[in-house]
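User: Last request for today: this protein with stearoyl-coenzyme A, please.
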Amino acid sequence: MMSHYKSNLRDIFFNLFEVLGRDEVLGQGPYEDMDHETAVAILTEIEHLASTKLAASYVDGDRNPPVYDPATKSVVLPESFKQSFAELMKAGFYSLELPAELGGQPTPPSLQWAANELNLGANPALFMYSAGPKFATVLWYNGTERDRRIAEIMVERQWGATMVLTEPEAGSDVGAGVTRAIPQPDGSWHIEGVKRFITSGEQDMTENIIHLVLARPVGVEGVGGPGTKGLSLFIVPKYDFDLQTGELTGERNGVYATNVEKKMGIKVSTTCELTFGDGAPAKGWLLGEVHNGIAQMFQVIEHARMLVGTKAIATLSTGYLNALEYAKTRVQGADLAAGGDRTAPRVTITHHPDVRRSLMTQKAYAEGLRALVLYTASVQDRTWSARLSGGTDEAAERLNDLLLPIVKGYGSERSWVTLGTESLQTFGGSGFLQDYPLEQYVRDAKIDTLYEGTTAIQGQDLFFRKIVKDQGQALTDLSMQIGAWLSPQADTVGSRASDEDGQLKEERDLLEQGLEHVGEIVSTMIDTLESAHPKAPEGDVRNIYKVGLNTTRLLMAMGDVICAWLLLRGAEVALERLNGELPPADKAFYEGKVASARWFARTVLPRLAAEAQIAEHTDLAIMDLPEESF
Ligand code: ST9
Ligand code: FAD
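Assistant: Here's the final one, the structure of the complex with stearoyl-coenzyme A:
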């Protein structure tokens, strides 16, 4: 059977080894056993598994989604999907994401995310069901002896796991959650409340599920106050188990899936209403025996935001490659240059300028976004290396924090829009049919702009937390990296390596201007924010709305500039390679890299001037408008 999944391992290798220089970390220090050859072999093996056994159940999982039985409050997943799951867990590649103490194989994050792209592109829901061992690391890093033992058991027995924040009245506003945690004499807690939209909340593929639940402790002095800071994180198993051996005791804990949602996409991923403590108590333990729930949960969220961004771009990449294959064979119409000659031969649609525009737009975004993910992962290489040697790399932590909302927010928006308006469109009416994977891709990728914090939340996180609260440190660092690459004299990391003959001169100028426009947007927003301070001369607190009207704009503009920069860095490397003798396939690949970077710079960056102007002229008109006039 033909696989729906078309990977781009060549471009992944290009980013990892030719642009981002990941050989700097492989095969040394903590990654001694993970050298270049091993990394290539592992990615090749994962790519094979992903495009065959994992991709095999992608369509069936959509057409025959899990069946929920309200009588037993359980679900049955399709057999084909279970087989893929068994293959994924048997392959054991999750060990790449685990610390050595949990049986992991130390692997730099850049390699982990390259691998994750392949899995997420082939069968995203499958990969999310398999995250139990990775979830165990949160217990390992934050836990008591007891929690660490649970973490070991979760890995040994390959249990499932969930992150449980959302409630009917607490979505973006997690701090509005009312689920309660009541302390018990034996040191455990009973959870009471209803959570909704919980991914993988019920399934019949693993022996047990560990739910990581945010709830508000009651009756304990000094904790459980309002908002997110009053939430604590509890470890709540589906089935009770022996804390030493991990054996199930046979007792069902009082947490049940009381509904499974019917939805637009990722249908095989169960999205559950979970009811805690309605009847039998839902027993849990306080993670680390400290009340620090939101900060602990954000360790999970940060990882999951990177994962969702990577899922989105992985889908765009396979969407583009499917569209490209179709376009190469679909014959329709005559060449535009045939000048209306009715007898002119019909050509494949790749001959039409508008189809070329569309294909190159898809290629440029798919490759730009991949570069964004892997660049961010390479920043995580720095944070991991520092931590593994007992220190911290504060600059890298800040930069990673700055990049995460861009990977998640910008990555998912650009991917979803491009999949729908370009990749599916390339197929004409056929794109609308279930004969091709595009209609499922579009449905499955929409969720990426929604969960793990909507795009609005990512934009606010970027501006208020990652720029203002950070006092612009990470933003300055990033701007300096881009500036260093733009400056011909620079010789710092990431600086331009060649281009002496100025083949990318126009694109560099465009990048420089784009960077300036982003700077203008940020300055406008900072000035406006200051003018909203009650103590500012003529300060008007309502000016904060003008900031809020531009946070998503800034998110998207920054994403455009960073992707352009990374694509141009790639183009520079490609141009260098093109100076030498190359086999035809490599020549075509590198020429494609130069072309997509140029296309992105020339068609995307000029729009930033307009964005800066729009930001500057923002007023309060739509905030003043009565709701009735909308
Ligand atoms: C969901 C799941 O949607 C979707 C798919 C799941 C798939 C699962 C896949 C598997 C994942 C595997 C994971 C493995 C784990 C690996 C871990 C490795 C170790 N960064 O601004 P404040 C914290 S789930 C870090 O006042 P508000 C911070 O502690 C549902 N921390 O917020 C802060 O205190 P401080 C997803 C952050 O106004 C505190 O929060 N739902 C960040 O009280 C309070 O901050 C959402 O994402 C950050 N960026 O609350 C909700 N931000 O300032 C979206 C905050 O002292 N809503 N903290 O440091 C939001 O994010 C809101 O902005 C809000 C607002 C809730 C934070
Ligand atoms: P709302 O918060 O009501 O938002 C509605 C609209 O208002 C959005 O456009 C939003 O951007 C906007 N908005 C809201 N507040 C603001 C604001 N302050 N400023 C500007 N705009 C704002 N949750 C979990 O805990 N665990 C899971 O595993 C999980 N999996 C999910 C799986 C699926 C399929 C779905 C659909 C959701 C899942 N969620 C999960 C929940 C998900 O994280 C939330 O749906 C999401 O955070 C948004 O919350 P909401 O749906 O309540 O929307």
